[in-house]
Backbone:
């Protein structure tokens, strides 16, 4: 198990994006707007997050439906799915 100091050091390497992940790619909210996400423990800004709205939800649902209907994911093992996750 990692120590608090190790976790704090690791947290410095995390890159937070202000983009939504829709249809296999990162993209800004349709409106171009963002909102601040604040760490409640430190009250410091974590990142400005894409402020997605109904248009973005519609895009995400359409992308998910397309992927689901293709049935391509049913042939991928859980371990192999990790390779598709963005870092």
Residues:
């Amino acid at each position: 198990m990692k120590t608090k100091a190790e976790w704090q050091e690791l947290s410095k390497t995390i890159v937070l994006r202000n983009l939504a992940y829709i249809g296999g790619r990162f993209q800004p909210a349709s409106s171009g707007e963002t909102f601040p996400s604040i760490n409640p423990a430190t009250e410091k800004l974590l990142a400005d997050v894409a402020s997605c709205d109904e248009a973005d939800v519609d895009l995400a649902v359409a992308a998910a439906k397309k992927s689901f209907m293709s049935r391509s994911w049913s042939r991928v093992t859980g371990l192999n799915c990790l390779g598709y996750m963005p870092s």
